[in-house]
Amino acid sequence: MKEPSLLTHVDDDHELVESLGKDAISSVIAVSMSLIVILASTITIIYLWKGEEGFVIERPSSALLSWQMEYMDLVGANNGSLSELDGRGVVVCVVDSGVDLDHPDLRGVELKGWRDSINGVGEPYDDEGHGTAMTGIIVSDGGLDGVAKEVELLVAKAINDEGQGTDETVSDSVDWCVQQGADIISLSLGGSQSFGSDFITTDELERSVDDALDSGVFVVSSAGNDGEDDDGDVGSPGSVGGVICVGGITRSGTIWSGSSEGDNDGRLWPNPILPRSDPDKKPEIVAPGHEVPVLMASGVGNSEWWGWSSGTSAATAWVSGSLALLLQENPDLQRENSTGRQAIESVKDAISQSSQKNEGHAGHDDHYGYGHLRIDLLISHFDV
């Protein structure tokens, strides 16, 4: 009697096993399909963020994203009134070490033009990294958001793989930018002023910059990074009268310690400088220049796609991108719609009035300029 009971029990168990087996098979199939879907998604994500150094699946760190947002708030870029502005229709020329278009945040960028004044290479590249960082501040679209990511972008390589250029290579690049129809030339670089440049310039780069200004092209250049061991004035070509010279600030809005100071009272030695008057006192404006989130070029020793940079170079790119928004909103300020330096003088006057003043300063400060960049206030200045 026990055997049938056992068999019955076994039979019952067998039916249960069959049932469990069918359910298990269904579960295995379902789980397997889910894993395939997950794996496919994972492969897609990895593919999207694949880098030359291997698979890069992370985005910029939370710290970088937070710093970016703080700077956007500081300069008024998050003002809702600017939400429709992206730089479209404005031509910006970045003169630097080149650009790495393989960066995930730049893969959608189509250059309007490229020039290599160093090696004469026909395709864009960046063997130093600085140019990619500065270009990204303007047009990055992905992990970090550029200030004016829909500008028409020209890139001229005038800086070599050691981070150095000459008056000749930079001058050649500036001339090319003008020929290609640039509205704005961004020069995140600088050097020594030519002797007596306020009286008569013998410097090839300063002459090219003057010619660009005469053509109605906005030229934006770095003040310099010798603030802790200042030589007494901003670098060239930021020292040229019509150029918008840019110093750097921190996320709290205080001056970055390395930002160069302007000499606006004039001097005879070691290099004669005439006293400067408004709105051409140097620097004209300050912008994000300390721990600024930037893109990192591949192939130059970087293991990450994103990092940070401190210097007036980054501040220059911020102002160049912001000017593109201004020119998009006010096409009459663009080169093709203005005469000579008229629009440049108008914008420089607006900068002197709309920039956010440092506490305790009503006018110009030799370190802080006319104030820190407030792109929302600069644009609204022309709406009056």
Can you characterise this structure?
Mean pLDDT is 84; it is low at 1-57 and 195-200. The protein contains eight helices and eleven strands. By secondary structure, it is of the alpha/beta class. Strands 4-5-3-6-7-8-9 form a seven-stranded parallel β-sheet, sandwiched between helices.
Give the helices and strands, then pairings:
Layout: H1 2-48, E1 50-51, E2 54-55, H2 62-74, E3 91-96, E4 113-116, H3 130-139, E5 152-157, H4 167-179, E6 184-187, H5 204-214, E7 218-222, E8 244-249, E9 285-288, E10 292-295, E11 306-309, H6 312-329, H7 342-354, H8 375-381
Parallel strand pairs: 3-5, 3-6, 4-5, 6-7, 7-8, 8-9
Antiparallel strand pairs: 1-2, 10-11
Helix pairs in contact: 3-6, 4-5
The separation of the N and C termini measures: 104 Å
Mass-distribution shape: globular
Q: Low-confidence segments, ≥5 residues, pLDDT <50?
A: 1-57, 195-200
The value of Rg in angstroms is 28 Å
**What structural category arises from helix and sheet content?**
alpha/beta
Total E-strand runs: 11
The percentage of residues in β strands lies in 5-15%
User: How many structural domains in the coordinates?
Assistant: 2
H/E order of the elements?
Answer: HEEHEEHEHEHEEEEEHHH
Quick take:
This protein has helices at about 1-50, 60-75, 130-140, 165-180, 205-215, 310-330, 340-355, 375-380; strands at about 50, 55, 90-95, 115, 150-155, 185, 220, 245-250, 285-290, 290-295, 305-310. It has about 375 residues and is an alpha/beta fold.
